[in-house]
Design goal:
The protein has helices spanning 8-17, 28-46, 66-78, 125-137, 139-145, 163-167, 180-183, 190-206, 215-223, 276-289, 307-319, 330-339, 354-362, 372-378, 390-401, 404-418, 423-440; strands at residues 52-56, 85-89, 112-114, 150-153, 172-175, 209-212, 232-234, 263-267, 295-299, 322-325, 342-345, 366-369, 383-385. It is of the alpha/beta class.
């Protein structure tokens, strides 16, 4: 199927053209068999007595970052439940091969069902192309046919294939993780900016409920008049990555090859909103003031609008004081967190700040940007510096690096703070909102 033209109409034309006239109707056999089996599956799902929730799982087709981990941890916690039926729909709805490209193995349990149909097959290649294309074109109809009570979009808004479901009146609950497209548009990838501007107006006006990761973002939405306060609920997240128990003296796993022995850590995609530039400026100042400062480790792939930063990173690596790792395994990231002298999060803007809780759970002290959302998450368990002040960042970093007692106190506070956040609580609060919307549907 990988060689199919992207345009479905052209695919149909080529497939029909390749068939002898007398064979044109042969596609009806495999397509009819597939249709009968599909109708039986739909009828089974419609008989479900529990509240039914459809979830878009498209984030699982890309390397997991914040939103992907949010969805994965949420499903892990929801999987054992028996009081709801959660249907998972992705790009593989009618294409069995697509599931091979998921980057994670889906959680399993009595609550979850991954809805995916293998396309109809024929011993004639052209007929297989034709029937598979027809089946894929039916994807939006299949989404609507299950008649789920609620549609949950964990990534701001649902994809276009859900338009028919929305048009038929299924209520939408969407998680809007931040307002970066309004607050820091200069830092957002243009494609993302265009999509959010195009689609979020529909969410603001018609979603039954909007979830946010923090009170700070909820306040921004309500304050901007985008949605009424009654339609916006905060559901806090928890640590995306789960490092070993920080009280366990066992081996936390191996760091990536080439990791320095003493280092401070930055975790995040290298893109303008994360403000790595301020951290690099501050670290240059530290190096000028100290004969032998620790190294700086940057853990995250190069993202959008990062050309200048990429050159600075390359130059710093050649000078020997910085080490850049791209996407690393969970165990490698856990090791980096656990062995860091400190973790720095200099972001201009965040919707929540998952590295804060990941550092807390790993027992690493923090210096973070003095912005409302990070105050909300980190409380008194971190040192703060304005995101646009490299001199203040330099002073806070030097203070923490030079004071082992302060590092120990922040670690103690951080572990205590982390106990307030759990994926179990996130799942309970999320499912309660979804159930309530389902009951009102």
């Amino acid at each position: 199927m990988g060689g199919l033209p992207s345009n479905a109409r052209e695919t149909l034309r080529l497939a029909f053209a390749s068939l002898a006239p007398m064979r044109n109707l042969r596609f009806l056999g495999p397509l009819a068999s597939w249709t009968v089996a599909t109708v039986q599956e739909v009828r089974r799902r419609r008989r479900e007595a529990r509240p039914t929730i459809a979830i878009d799982i498209s984030p699982f087709w890309e390397p997991l970052t914040g939103i992907g981990w949010y969805l994965y941890r949420l499903l892990e916690e929801l999987a054992p439940r028996t009081d709801v039926a959660i249907r998972l729909y992705g790009p593989d709805l009618v294409d069995g091969r697509q599931s091979e490209r998921m980057v994670v193995r889906l959680p399993s349990g009595p609550a979850l069902e991954h809805v995916s149909y293998a396309p109809p097959r024929s011993r004639w290649t052209a007929l297989s192309m034709l029937t598979a294309t027809v089946a894929r074109l039916l994807g939006p109809v299949l989404l609507a046919a299950d008649r789920n009570r609620v549609l949950f979009a964990p990534n701001y808004f649902p994809p276009r294939r859900w338009l028919l479901v929305e048009a038929l009146g299924t209520p939408l609950v969407a998680t809007v993780h931040d307002l970066s497209y309004l607050k820091v548009p200069w830092a957002v990838r243009q494609e993302t900016q265009d999509n959010l501007e195009r689609h979020l107006d529909w969410v603001w006006s018609r979603a039954a409920m909007i979830l946010t990761d923090s009170h700070a973002v909820r306040g921004e939405i309500v304050g901007a008049g985008l949605a009424a306060p009654s339609r916006v609920r905060t559901v806090h997240l928890a640590a995306a990555h789960r490092p070993d128990d920080p009280d366990d003296p066992g081996d936390p796993g191996e760091p990536p090859a080439g990791a320095p022995e003493l280092y401070a850590l930055f975790v995040g995609t290298v893109e303008p909103r994360k403000n790595l530039e301020t951290l690099l400026d501050a670290w240059s100042g530290l190096r000028a003031q100290s004969a032998d400062p620790p190294s700086l480790v940057v853990c995250g792939r190069l993202g959008w609008k990062s050309g200048g930063l990429a050159k600075r990173i390359e130059r710093a690596e050649s000078e020997g004081w910085l080490r850049h790792f791209g996407y690393v395994s969970d165990s490698e990231l856990a090791s980096l967190y656990r062995n860091a002298l400190l973790v720095a999060l200099p972001s201009h803007y965040e919707g929540f700040g998952l590295p804060v809780l990941e550092a807390f759970e790993a027992g690493a002290p923090l210096v973070v940007s003095d912005i409302p959302v990070l105050r909300e998450v980190a409380g008194d368990a971190a040192l703060y510096a304005p995101p646009g002040r490299p001199d203040t960042w330099e002073a806070r970093l030097a203070e923490l690096l030079g004071d082992a007692d302060l590092r120990g106190e922040l670690v103690r506070r951080g572990r205590e703070r982390a106990r307030r956040f759990s994926w179990g609580r996130t799942a309970d609060e999320t499912i309660e909102i979804l159930r309530r919307v389902a009951e009102l549907a």
